[in-house]
Design brief:
Length: 155
């Protein structure tokens, strides 16, 4: 995933804390979007997404918040928030990619690759412990390659 840096615009805005919005991201947007519209005017409509990076002093219980469907995301300014590519993608997509989606994006690795030669036989089983994808991208999915399909399998 890449971003066109020339298409990004960073704008610093100050919002009053008097309204008690705190970590209420919808109230932050309600206060922030009119300020942005005043600063950017009609140019604001050219942007597909709005991203609010909150002050570090604001201790929110989340690293990213987004409404789905939507084009606005709110991030904390730390390694688990705006500085984490996976978190940024989650906010922009308004969803968290599943383990198979992370694998396909190249952001995760399989714990094991199973095929016709190493799948347990009928009636047998083997257990695997997969970590949570929010903790790591390493070993978060089992990949099954159906090599018994021969040339019919093309992925």
């Amino acid at each position: 995933m890449t971003y066109d840096a020339a298409a990004l615009q960073i704008v610093n805005i100050s919002l009053s804390c008097d309204d008690g919005a705190g970590c209420d991201y919808l109230r932050i947007a309600s206060a922030g979007i009119p300020v942005l519209r005043t600063m950017l005017g009609a140019d604001m409509d050219a942007y597909g997404h709005l991203v609010f990076v909150l002050p570090s002093a604001l201790e929110c219980p989340w690293n990213v918040a987004a409404v789905s469907p939507g084009n606005v995301a709110w991030y904390r300014p730390n390694g688990s928030g705006i500085l984490n590519t996976g978190t940024v993608m989650q906010g922009l997509l308004s969803t968290c990619p599943s383990a198979p989606e992370l694998l396909r994006l190249g952001w995760a690795t399989p714990l094991a690759v199973l095929n016709g030669s190493n799948l347990p036989e009928d009636g047998a089983y083997k257990s695997y412990r997969l970590p949570a994808t929010y903790l790591t991208g390493d070993g978060v999915v089992l990949r099954i390659v159906p090599d018994w399909l021969g040339s019919a399998y093309t992925r």
